[in-house]
Amino acid sequence: MLKEMSEEEKDQLRQLNHPHVATVVRFVMETDLSISMLMDCLSDDTLLALMTRSEHLESRFSYYEQIADGMAYLHDRHFIHGCLQAKFIYVTPNGRAIIGQLARATLVHLDVYDDDVSQVMEQPFENPPTNTIRWMSKETNESRFMTQKSDVHSFGVLIWEAENALCQPSDTPSTHLAPYSHVEYDQVVEVQRQRHTLPQSPQCPDWLYELVKAFTANPCCRRPSFPEAKRCLQIR
After folding, report:
1. Which end of the chain is more exposed for a tag (fewer CB within 10 A), N or C?
2. Which residues pair with 98 in a beta bridge?
3. Average pLDDT, stretch 177-194?
4. Nearest to 109 by CA among 12, 14, 16
5. Which of 210, 118, 195 is nearest to 160 (CA)?
6. What crossing angle do the helices spanning 148-165 and 60-76 adopt, rounded to 10°?
7. What residues does the Protein kinase domain cover (predicted)?
8. Over the stretch 41-78, which tens digit does the pLDDT of each residue have?
9. Distances (CA, A) of 125 to 28, 48, 102, 104
10. CATH number for the segment(s) 7-108+123-234
11. 3-state DSSP helix/strand/coil percent for the chain, to nearest 5?
12. What average pLDDT does the chain have?
């Protein structure tokens, strides 16, 4: 679902150039007059699919680091991604992770008084799709506002999602792999308010689970930036 974008946002998205961010080729008007985005992700294989294959056990840590690097680039360009999920991360045959699904990316406009871009708030959707709620932060689900810190939260959930999928049968329903799969989507916010953390999967090492908890911490000011997240993943 492509959110309504300004011409400036479209132009800035077309200018993105990073090895771990999908290339926006062009925007196309469909027959129903809606606008779609064409991206080159260099692969059809997703991180979520790869995690059901045991041969990718060790390489997954490199994928997480690459995603953090790509997200640091997007934030440096003042974009909030707004839809980080493992199924939107593409992995090339040579092991390069690429962030896709830029259809909800939002360009942050800084006010003269804004000295911390990580806390600048944007509102991409008045009514976000219900299938994204499980990856969103508590503050986003409550207010519908997103920040760079809410992207960090989604990154932590993405890692949890990938670890949870690790070594699961390839025919496992995607609904069973999603975060908070034990509750309906409209109950997720209440679970978050009760401060229930996502459980550690058997394959997730302790050091990585500690990072997942840091990335999804509340309040949002406790979460690291993506450059900090990348450094944490490098020194594991």
Report:
1. C
2. 90
3. 75
4. 12
5. 210
6. 160
7. 1-236
8. 878 899 998 888 766 678 899 999 999 999 999 999 99
9. 21, 25, 14, 8
10. 1.10.510.10
11. 45, 10, 45
12. 84
Name every residue whose Cβ is closer than 8 Å to that of residue 175 and which is 6 or more positions away in sequence. Answer: 181
Q: Taking a C-beta distance cutoff of 8 angstroms, is the pair 95, 55 a contact?
A: no
Place of tokens 């045959």: 93
pLDDT in tens, 91-147: 999 999 999 999 889 898 766 455 566 665 655 555 555 578 888 888 888 887 888
Report pLDDT digits (tens) over 141-184. 888 788 899 999 999 999 999 999 986 777 777 777 888 777 77
Nearest to 82 by CA among 60, 65, 104: 104
Q: Measuring CA to CA, how many Å separate 39 from each of 31, 42, 98, 223? A: 19, 9, 11, 30
Place of tokens 């003269």: 112
Length of the chain: 236
228 DSSP β-pair partners: none
Residue type, 10: K
pLDDT of residue 112: 47
User: Do residues 208 and 163 lie in contact, with contact meaning Cβ atoms separated by under 8 Å?
Assistant: yes
DSSP state string for 161-211:
HHHHHTT--TTS-HHHHSTTTTS-GGGHHHHHHTTPPPPPPTTS-HHHHHH
Cα–Cα distances in angstroms (integers) from residue 207 to residues 61, 110, 200, 203, 234, in the given order: 12, 35, 11, 12, 12
| CB hemisphere CA count around 228 (13 angstroms) | 10
